[in-house]
Amino acid sequence: MPAVTRNIGLSLGADICWPLAFEQILADSKLRLDLGREVVEFACERVGLGPFALEKGCKYDVVVDRLTHWFTLQREWIKKGILMDDLYVYNNPWTVQSYEKHSSYCAMMALGMPVPKTVMLPQKNYKEQDDLQFTLESYARMFELDPIADGLGYPSFLKPYDGGGWRGVSKIDDVEGLRSAYDESGQDLMHLQSAVHDFDVFVRAVGIGPQVRVMKYDPSQPLHSRYRVDRDFLPKEDEQLIIDTTLTINTFFGWDFNSCEMLSKDGVYYPIDFANPCPDSQVNSIHYHWPWYVLSNLKWALFNAATNRQMRKTVDFEAFYEIAKKDLPYAEKLKAYAKIARDRLSTNEFETFDKKHFAPLEEAAFAWFRSERCVAAIRLKVTNVFPEHEVDEFAGKFHALVLQSVDDLAASCK
């Protein structure tokens, strides 16, 4: 039976180490899948940037996108590919563009998630534009920050409604600090959000398709120490709640690859930041967890390509809202949301496909992470972000954590 080739494109920005791992592991695995009706092989390349004719077809079956969230040219090329060429792309580009932190808070609050109390504040300053002065003089209402902050309590956080990467975030401990931070916010539209004070644990979960990794997180540390190595640090019931929350959020917005931050206090898990459809993916930040990211990314991309999985061109919120309207405890609603998510992600089909076809991929991945090519990829990334005198130290540290992780992953796959 002749083989057909499925093409995977990597749409990249400043990514360095994980694309090397993705490309080389795929090549090493020599996957040739007999799917009964056809034999499927895979090709992978990095997507370039340049002019494109709207009527020209797209060579890729799947694109792993890391650029749409900020690079307009690539976003519009991807939109064209979805609409005209049946391209499957990680993360719906329309929701990435329009569903910023504010909209994601609103949607998940409507589903009953315990998002901390949040107030949107008018901009401190405005960009000059026609009719602005008339509009403000006619309709802008004077307000006091003090009562708003008192209603939320201290501490709280002032942060841009569309922020990312901790841009413009200020911890507010008193009204003087709030006034100062608000004055400095300039033209940013800001949220003031109640803090979950004295929380028990900070969790960041990342979903890649139906696969979810729950990680302990410490944002007070430098980037290379925020993701902790701890595994099985939560009761199974709590971990399942976090997984269900992550799958619900991701599927609601049509995001294949997104992370969700949650804080636990008094038995409640508060989602605080979950519009992150371009999560940390490089070894200098996720180190121990990096092999899981790379292997899970490969599996989801290859499954989508091999099965000709169709991307939803629109998002459908109604099924979630129908559940939200029901007179049910939130825990039951969340299980129902997560069932919709798993169905939309073809979870059972993916898990069966994984067990049947991906053993050679896992074997190639474990060998690669133990190879000198992995050492070289880690060092290349570290050299790019650390001063020269720290390169040896951190390259060695990250490699040791990767080896520890691979041993743990290999044991879990047996």
List keywords for this structure.
single chain, 414 residues, alpha+beta, Rossmann fold, Dna Ligase, domain 1, five-stranded mixed β-sheet, 47% helix, 18% strand, globular
Structure, described:
47% of the residues lie in helices and 18% in strands. It is globular. α1 crosses α15 (359-369) and α9 (236-253) crosses α13. The protein has helices at 17-29, 72-85, 93-98, 101-110, 132-139, 145-152, 175-184, 223-226, 236-253, 283-286, 290-306, 318-324, 330-344, 347-357, 359-369, 372-385, 391-413, and strands at residues 3-11, 33-34, 39-46, 62-65, 88-89, 118-121, 156-160, 170-172, 190-194, 201-208, 211-216, 257-265, 268-276. The strands form three sheets. It has a five-stranded mixed beta sheet, with helices on both faces. It is an alpha+beta fold and 414 residues long.
Strand order, sheet with most strands:
2-3-1-4-5
| Biggest β-sheet description | 5 strands, mixed
- Spell the H/E element sequence: EHEEEHEHHEHHEEHEEEHHEEHHHHHHHH
Shape: globular
How many distinct helices? 17
Query: Span between N and C termini?
Result: 32 Å
Question: How big is the Rg?
Answer: 23 Å
Give helix % range: 40-55%
In terms of DSSP E residues, the strand content is 15-25%
SS-based class: alpha+beta
Tell how many strands the DSSP assignment holds.
13
Uncertain stretches: none
- Count of the domains: 3
Query: Overall pLDDT, averaged?
Result: 95
